[in-house]
Amino acid sequence: MIKIENLHKSFDNTPVLKDVNMKIEKNEIVALQGPSGAGKTTLLKSIGLLDTIDKGSILFDTQDIASFNTTQQCFFRNQEIGFVFQFHNLLPEFSALENICMPALVSGEIFKKTQQKALVLMDALNIKNKKHAKPDELSGGEQQRVAIARSLINSPQLILADEPSGNLDSKQSTDMFNLFHEISKKHQTTFLIITHNNDLAQMCNRIINIQDGQIV
Ligand SMILES: Nc1ncnc2c1ncn2[C@@H]1O[C@H](COP(=O)(O)OP(=O)(O)O)[C@@H](O)[C@H]1O
Ligand SMILES: [Mg+2]
């Protein structure tokens, strides 16, 4: 489903991703691991079209999404990619429920329909009782689960997650990974997940290791 070829990315003339080549099959849940500074977040952002690349291609099925213009990239990102970040990037002035609905509302979905879907996700993530809470009224773990529900709201083909278990205890983390497997089975969603946690990485179908900007 995703094929990355000869991907290069530098910051201030310092190469960070050095000829990255990798493939991810549809429906796979892949862990991305490597030391701090190896380029994991940069790779995730490149695949998610949140940052430009210097060279190479990012094939999504047969389309090179890196060659899309800005409008095409925005549309693709909203429809086909879900993000879960280390820092949740929740909008502080909106409730948990509204934050979860946001990507769907941006793409023109009606609130009522979106809300029903959001509540199903909140139920699965055990945060339904927090639907009216603002982000600063939620614990780190609850904020993280709101961010996970938000990433799933548009039923994207690909979820990119950067340390999604960062604020969760081990039971919450295991529950989250079980939910990822459930979603992947039900909707053929593909997951690429950065995690330092080896137990969680073992719950993935495959582990890709990156060191000093190269897949090893
Ligand atoms: N926006 C940026 N500007 C300059 N350097 C950056 C930027 N983002 C990341 N880097 C550098 O790129 C390298 C890889 O960073 P990153 O992808 O965040 O690594 P990881 O997620 O594996 O810890 C690091 O040396 C980091 O300092
Ligand atoms: Mg990182």
Structural class: alpha/beta
* Shape annotation: globular
Number of H/I helices: 7
CATH superfamily: P-loop containing nucleotide triphosphate hydrolases
Detail the poorly predicted runs: none
Main beta sheet strand tally, sense and closure = 6 strands, mixed
Number of domains: 1
Helical content class: 25-40%
Span from first to last CA?
21 Å
Strand content: 25-35%
Name the strands of the widest sheet in spatial order. Answer: 6-7-8-3-9-10
What is the class in the CATH system? Alpha Beta
**Quaternary arrangement of the chains shown?**
single chain
Number of strands: 10
Small molecules bound in the structure, each named once:
adenosine-5'-diphosphate, magnesium ion
Which H/E pattern describes the elements?
A: EEEHEEHEHHHEHEHEE
Query: Rg to the nearest angstrom?
Result: 17 Å
Average residue pLDDT: 93
Describe, in plain words, how this protein is organized in 3D.
The protein has a single domain (28-42, 78-215), classed as P-loop containing nucleotide triphosphate hydrolases (Rossmann fold), CATH 3.40.50. β9 (206-211) and β10 (214-215) form a beta hairpin. It has helices at 40-47, 70-80, 96-106, 111-124, 140-152, 170-187, 198-202, and strands at residues 2-11, 14-24, 29-33, 55-60, 63-64, 81-84, 158-162, 190-194, 206-211, 214-215. With 216 residues, the chain is of the alpha/beta class. α3 (96-106) packs across α4. It is built from seven helices and ten strands. It binds adenosine-5'-diphosphate and magnesium ion (MG). The site of magnesium ion has 3 residues, from α1.
